[in-house]
Every structure is written in structure tokens, then in C-alpha cells.
Amino acid sequence: MAKQSKQSQYETGAEELLTPIAAANGVRIYDVEYVREGKDYYLRCYIDKDGGVTIGDCENVSRALSDELDRVDLIQDPYTLEVSSPGLGRTLTRDRHLAQSIGQQVEISGYRKLEAAGTKDVQGILKAFDKETVTIADEEGKEITIPRKEISVIRLALDF
Fold it and tell me: What is the mean pLDDT of the chain?
């Protein structure tokens, strides 16, 4: 069994602690990330619910999670805990994010020109995905299947 990185251990451990807290507060876990920015570390927990999360939801989850993180002493390094909504133009980083977004408008950016789209950036309705590809329908309804290894970011499109 491969040894998990410290980042992965912290993210997995925090998500395990967060799961019952999220359920008790009527929210879903969207994502958990442990990142370094400059010399500072952040444990960012993104929560969501139908109708959107409130500041009160974030405060309640943050307080409860902070207490659990202190009790378990999961992260030995100094860090800042942030609990927030993933926002409107949320990045779809996990398969569960893609599954929740089927039928919605997405923006896909490639590392370079996406072969299937003929451009570096493309928008469309998310139709399907698997381990290797993501399929969208463009504005004419034409389906475009893009290899995931070519995709740098997928996010929900902001429609104003």
C-alpha cells in the first residue's frame, strides 16, 4: 500500500471529521483541501446545500470542526481553518462534482488547444464523464468528448 502524503492524510482525516458535522448541520461536503500559500497553511472546507449555504452554516460547521480538529490533534503544523461555500463558478475537481453537475453549463480550459474542440477553451452542457473523458454538448447540440488528461480546469459557467 502506498504511503499517503501529509497533505492527503490531512484532507482525508479532516473530511472524516467533517462528515458527521456536515450531516448534523444539514449541509454536504463539497471539497476539503490542505494547501500552502507562501509560508502559511490553510485547511479549506467547502460546504454546500440546496438553496446555498449561509454565513451561519459556515460558522456552525467551522466551530464544530475546529473543536474536533483540536480534540484529535490531526494537524500538527500551524494552519488557518476556512469553511465556505464553493461559490457560483465552482471548480469541478472530483467525480462527485461532475456527477452533481450533469445537465449544467460548464467551461473547460485545456493545458493547450483541445483537439476535440479546436480551441483551448470551450463551453457546453455537461453530458457525461468517465475515468478518461468528459463529454459536453455545444450550443448547436453537437457532442464533444475531451480526454481528461488535456483538461486543466472544469468549472460551472456563470450565466448572467
Answer: 91
